[in-house]
Amino acid sequence: MNFTEKLGGLLPDGIDCFLVTSELNQRYLTGLNYTDGYVIVSREKSWLLADFRYIEVAKRYETDTLEVVQLENRKVNLGNIFADNKFSKVGFESNNMTVARLNGLKETFPLVDFVPVGGIIEKMREIKTPEEVENTVRAQRIAEKALDRLLTLITPEMTEIDVALELEYGMRKFGAEKPAFDTIAISGTATSMPHGVPRNVKLEKGFLTMDFGALYNGYCSDMTRTVVLGRADAEMRRMYDTVLKAQFAGLDYVAAGKTGASCDKVARDIIDNAGYKGCFGHSLGHGVGMFIHEEPRLSATFDKELPVGAIVTVEPGIYVEGKYGVRIEDMVYLAESGPVNLTNAKKELIELF
């Protein structure tokens, strides 16, 4: 069973079909990476609507249950499918669609009742198939190769932007479609900002935090490594070791069936009890898939059980404002047999220069 067929089986009662407008969800359902189109899913059949720019490629994705339609006129093409199949109640992605777009659909198709259906595809995306796991692993191996390459090239004369660009170049060189998100490469005092932006300044002595990932076949990887430029003093080592201890504890504890909140607490207690209470200001982790931040969450407010088949990050950090910070992040697959760490990059403290 493919994803469109699975979604068709999950349609709520009273809904004739589901109109998918999110480009990411369209790619998830059909495999085609394209823009400005539609996917319509019913219980018996699905339609992929793509314009002339993509139609040749789109035809390769056609199956017995997925019909490809060249999109020439939205009113005509969508209208014909609605009318021919007597679709009067059409579900839409209420988590993604703008009010303006919804109003436009209502004006174009006044006889159709558009019904909000939120989160149904996102819930599907939480549980990864073996192929999705493999794509994520491939993305992670690409990111690791890019990091290995960078560590042979980095010099004190480089800027934070240089470091980010070298990571991104390495990922593209080794097979990524593109970076999975905006690369973070920050040094010195800037490492106290969890999502700091790379600056056009020479690397500062102290910590260098790199948070980056590759996109492979539509799937993201996510990894953070912190190294030291120069030599680490006793307090820097203590902070790094505390984060690493918290991460190991989180990695040992996280598993399907445990709540996101309990996972967060295991790591957070170690950091708080080490004297850094209030310095770990984000959650322990999040789901990863076609989007870099997905459900489920490893946070103090996520009291739901983590499902078998999810991929999550475990990324504790300590940040002292105006001074520096450390974060270490791995990805974990929550298999039925137990958690599997998908990240191979080493985590012992590295001192450069």
Description:
The chain is of the alpha+beta class and 353 residues long. It has two domains: 3-125, Creatine Amidinohydrolase, Chain A, domain 1 (3-Layer(aba) Sandwich), CATH 3.40.350; 130-352, Creatinase/methionine aminopeptidase superfamily (Creatine Amidinohydrolase, Alpha-Beta Complex). 35% of the residues lie in helices and 24% in strands. A six-stranded mixed sheet has the order 4-3-2-1-5-6, sandwiched between helices. The longest helix has 24 residues, at 130-153. The protein is elongated and about 70 Å long. It starts with a helix and ends with a strand. The model has no long low-confidence stretch (mean pLDDT 97). Residues 14-127 form the Creatinase N-terminal domain. This is Peptidase M24. Residues 138-334 form the Peptidase M24 domain. One of its GO terms (biological process) is proteolysis.
Keywords, separated by commas or semicolons:
353 residues; Creatine Amidinohydrolase, Chain A, domain 1; 2 domains; four-stranded mixed sheet; 20 strands; metalloprotease; metallopeptidase activity
Any chance you could write out the topology, listing elements then pairs?
Layout: H1 3-10, E1 17-20, H2 23-30, E2 38-42, E3 46-50, H3 55-58, E4 66-70, H4 74-84, E5 89-93, H5 99-108, E6 113-117, H6 120-126, H7 130-153, H8 160-173, E7 178-179, E8 184-187, E9 206-212, E10 214-216, E11 219-220, E12 223-229, H9 234-253, H10 260-276, E13 285-287, E14 294-298, E15 311-314, E16 317-320, E17 324-327, E18 330-335, E19 338-341, E20 351-352
Parallel strand pairs: 1-5, 3-4, 5-6, 12-20
Antiparallel strand pairs: 1-2, 2-3, 7-10, 8-9, 9-12, 10-11, 13-14, 15-18, 16-17, 18-19
Domain Peptidase M24: 138-334
Keywords: Hydrolase, Metal-binding, Metalloprotease, Protease
InterPro entries: Creatin/AminoP/Spt16_N, Creatinase/aminopeptidase-like, Creatinase_N, Pept_M24, Peptidase_M24B, Peptidase_M24B_aminopep-P_CS
